[in-house]
Amino acid sequence: MKINVNSVKFKVDTKLDTLIRDKVEKLSSHYDNIVSSDVTLKLDNANTVENKIVEIKVAIRGNDLFSKKQSKTFEEALDNATDALKKQLIKHKEKIKKI
Question: Which range of residues forms the domain containing residue 93?
């Protein structure tokens, strides 16, 4: 699976990049036909504590799944986004089995 990590107006350190790639790679254990994943990291301009945004788009055959989560840290937002995508992938897999 091809994984693209993008950040808006800042550079991602290697530790965070490795964590992102590991978490997104684990999604393939729930669904085999993932073509690619695009991960975008953003900082919200709001003056709140929860200003870290992680968006993940997973390309699968015939469909794209998307999750966007906001939290205090990129790691927490990443966990929430991958959990949401895990649920979507499982739901999509069950839907395909019924057809």
Answer: 2-98
Q: Provide the CATH number for the domain around residue 82.
A: 3.30.160.100
Check: pTM over 0.85? Answer yes or no.
yes
C-alpha distances (whole Å) from 50 to each of 14, 42, 45, 77, 97 are 22, 12, 10, 9, 38
pLDDT tens by residue, 8-59: 989 999 999 999 999 999 999 988 889 999 999 999 987 888 899 999 999 9
Provide the H-helix boundaries in 1-99. Answer: 14-26, 74-98
Domains of the chain: total: 1
Distance in angstroms (rounded) separating the CA atoms of residues 24 and 3: 8
Structure token digits, residue 72:
């205090």
Tokens 């390309």 locate to: 59
